[in-house]
Amino acid sequence: GGSEEQKRRAGEAAADEVEDGMVVGLGTGSTAAHAIRALGERGVEVEGVPTSFESRQRAVDAGIPLTSLDESSVDLAIDGADQVAGDALVKGGGAAHAREKYVDASADRFVVVADPSKEADALDAAIPVAVLPDARPVVAERVGGLGGEPTLRAAERKDGPVVTDDGALVLDCEFGRIENPGELATALCGIPGVVEHGLFVDLADAVYVGTADGVRVTEL
Ligand code: DER
């Protein structure tokens, strides 16, 4: 993965878009963490909508007041990604992609923060698919039928699988190079038992990539 300095530059640059009075979608992962920290340090008058247990905790630590989609609509969402190819992303490395997707997609503007290691000409990362636990075998079968190779994501410091904030399991599905992300995204949505998948197609509005000496912003 990229360096902490590259992640910091991306996160802090995206945080520059945030103005007093905004409701901000707070992404999950180590790159979005820099944006959350920066918002806290700068004392910007915002309310945050977290995208996971982790991002909620980081918001609390940063002193950012919380709100919810019940009470607020999101002006700007800032979130990381596992891979970026044009306007298609793979997310879900942190197993938070179900909530991330509906918060990010609900925002008036959704910007991705990343380091150069996330950039690719075409998506070829495994696609995390969150599934209802009992549906796992049938989802795995259908993923196979789409040409994917599903692997149940094992936890590290817990026996058994990773369990998401929503109580789902995660199948990491290898499809190789994905020529048509939109098509695959639609197919994955159609599998009964799938809670959410990690293909974010046509959702992001811009990508901030932190480099060794600056940041590259691409409007999508
Ligand atoms: O899980 C996610 O989608 C996160 O955004 C994550 O994949 C990116 O995490 P990182 O910024 O720590 O690489």
From TrEMBL:
Keywords for this protein: Isomerase
GO CC terms, sorted: cytosol
Catalytic activity: aldehydo-D-ribose 5-phosphate = D-ribulose 5-phosphate
MF term (GO), any: ribose-5-phosphate isomerase activity
InterPro entries: NagB/RpiA_transferase-like, Ribose5P_isomerase_typA_subgr, Ribose5P_isomerase_type_A
Coiled-coil intervals, chain numbering: none
HAMAP family with a match to the protein in the record: Rib_5P_isom_A
Assembly and binders: Homodimer.
Function: Catalyzes the reversible conversion of ribose-5-phosphate to ribulose 5-phosphate.
Name of the protein described by the UniProt record: Ribose-5-phosphate isomerase A
Organism: Halobacterium jilantaiense
Higher taxonomy: Archaea, Methanobacteriati, Methanobacteriota, Stenosarchaea group, Halobacteria
